[in-house]
Amino acid sequence: MSESPPVIVSRSGAVGVIELARPDKFNCLSLAVHAALEAAIDDFEKPGSGVRAVLIRAQGKHFCTGADLDEVKSLRSDQAKIEHFIRYGHSVLRRLEASPLPIVAACQGLVLAGGTELMLACDVVFAAKDARFGDQHAQFGLVPGWGGSQRFPRIVGLRRGLDLFFTARWIDADMALQWGLVNYVVEPEKLAEAALEYCTKITTRSRAGIATMKRLAREGLEGSLADGLKLEQDIVTGALLSEDVSEGLAAFEGRRAPVFKS
């Protein structure tokens, strides 16, 4: 009997859906899960795929409670294998950040450690009101291995990030919203609908325009303000001469909804 896939990939209109499908293991992240995430993004980005936004969600009570510790324990005896485990996870999460597609996470229940690192690499986050966020690595003598040590402080601030690392405590969805860790908090029964509706709405926007704004925002934050402003100047002229801008201006003048080709 073959094992069930760790990730289920589907589409809803122009929305590509990636669903973590290991609820019996709290959707923990393994090499197989990361490979499936990468393959899905590759497929969604292909020319002609029709995908204009991506939704990452999870089956069961919890979004993701971290790395698959059984797999970690099995790899620790081989340094090369454990290095690959860490580096591959880093590569896949960077892949999400670098994707031209907007990536939305819908989080319920526990979002911890590696699960938080996955969520941090997404662009927009919906949280169910019952969601809890944290990084419990220090509780077990571990350290973040997939970018959490860098992304957490950048999003919530250094002192808040260090507080969560040191104490391994959890924060609720409302505090996560207050800290800017998530964008929206909804009732648990409305999470799937609200996140998909959001994704569907942004699929009506210019794919090229969104890709450009995502690149400018993410690359700009990795350098100085001067570097970011220079990048914007270098890119904006070409963007303003695009077919999508022509369509957008014509739609504005004609008081109609634009239909973008990109």
Topology:
Elements: E1 7-12, E2 15-20, H1 31-45, E3 53-58, H2 69-75, H3 79-98, E4 103-107, E5 110-112, H4 114-120, E6 124-128, E7 132-134, H5 148-156, H6 158-167, E8 170-172, H7 173-179, E9 184-186, H8 191-202, H9 207-221, H10 225-240, H11 243-254
Parallel strand pairs: 2-3, 3-4, 4-6, 5-7, 6-9
Antiparallel strand pairs: 1-2, 7-8
Organism: Extensimonas vulgaris
GO molecular function: catalytic activity
Protein name: Short chain enoyl-CoA hydratase
Description:
This protein has 262 residues and is α/β, with parallel strands linked by helices. It folds into two domains: 7-202, 2-enoyl-CoA Hydratase, Chain A, domain 1 (Alpha-Beta Complex); 207-254. Helix content is 50%, strand content 15%. It contains eleven helices and nine strands. The strands form two sheets. The chain has a six-stranded mixed sheet, with helices on both faces. A three-stranded mixed sheet has the order 5-7-8. Helix 1 links the parallel strand 2 (15-20) and strand 3. Helix 1 packs parallel to helix 3 and helix 4 (114-120) packs across helix 5. The protein is globular and about 60 Å long. The N and C termini lie far apart (43 Å).
